[in-house]
Design a protein that fits this description.
This protein is mainly beta. The chain is 4% helix and 34% strand. The protein has one helix at residues 32-35; strands at residues 2-10, 23-29, 49-53, 62-67, 83-89. It has a 5-stranded antiparallel beta sheet with strand order 3-2-1-4-5, with no helix packed on it. The radius of gyration is 14 Å and the shape is elongated. The chain starts with a strand and ends in a 10-residue tail after the last strand.
């Protein structure tokens, strides 16, 4: 699982019926600099991704997401999906590893 921040939503004109009840969101991956507040922009330089969300995440929410084959696990059949939100984060405390 990875930590991300929802920065927007994707609007589709057509979607597979298997996606009923959810939507697609834009997620900015969060790294050590973002989690400790050392990045003033709050967004990492990593690629923004599109993830399926059926939890109701909104813009500005922190989430946990998974990518790859694990993203298809909640579905009963093979679903063309690369990332899915799996948890909404209420609060977190991040302590970077010490060297």
């Amino acid at each position: 699982m990875k930590v991300g921040k929802v920065i927007g939503k994707v609007t589709l004109s057509h979607a597979d019926s298997g996606f009923r009840g959810g939507r697609f969101i834009l997620v900015a991956p969060q790294g050590a600099k973002e989690l400790t507040g050392k990045n003033p922009r709050g967004f990492s330089d990593n690629w923004t991704l599109v993830a399926y969300d059926n939890l109701g995440a909104g813009e500005g929410d922190d989430i946990l997401y998974v990518e790859g084959a694990e993203a298809m696990q909640p579905f009963d059949y093979r679903t063309p999906l690369d990332a899915i939100s799996v948890a909404l984060i209420d609060t977190y405390r991040y302590e970077p590893p010490t060297e």
